Amino acid sequence: MKGKARGTPRYDWLGLGWARRPDDREIRTFLLDLLRENPLARWEEIRVRVERGVVTLVGDVSSGVARQAADDDAWATPGVVDVRNHLRLVIHPVSGDGPRAA
After folding, report:
1. Which sequence spans correspond to the domains of the chain?
2. 1 DSSP assignment
3. Would you say 77 and 27 are in contact if contact means Cβ atoms under 8 Å apart?
4. Considering all CA atoms of the chain, what is the largest pairwise distance in Å, rounded to the nearest integer?
5. What is the predicted pLDDT for the residue at 52?
6. Checking DSSP bridges between strand 54-61 and strand 82-89, what pairing results, if any?
7. Strand pairing class (45-51; 54-61)
8. Which pTM does this prediction carry?
9. CATH number of the domain located at residue range(s) 22-89 in this protein
């Protein structure tokens, strides 16, 4: 690792061997692609903002699993230094009558 600053992340595994941190636009684009491919998060209304490597997730999701999947995808995105997950869990009833006993 000659010539590389200590603590600087390496992205060779992703084909990003140029060893620079992705800019905010690249981080957002990569994360949006991950969310679209993730079967747990692809149908959710998630808005993504990135500022200086900090990802903010905003919107409503239908399950805790979808919320966690989006959070995991954000942390797995190269260049991300922090994630602020402001996704709200909103449960929509199947009918207006509420749950039915079996």
Report:
1. 22-89
2. -
3. yes
4. 67
5. 96
6. parallel
7. antiparallel
8. 0.72
9. 3.30.1340.30
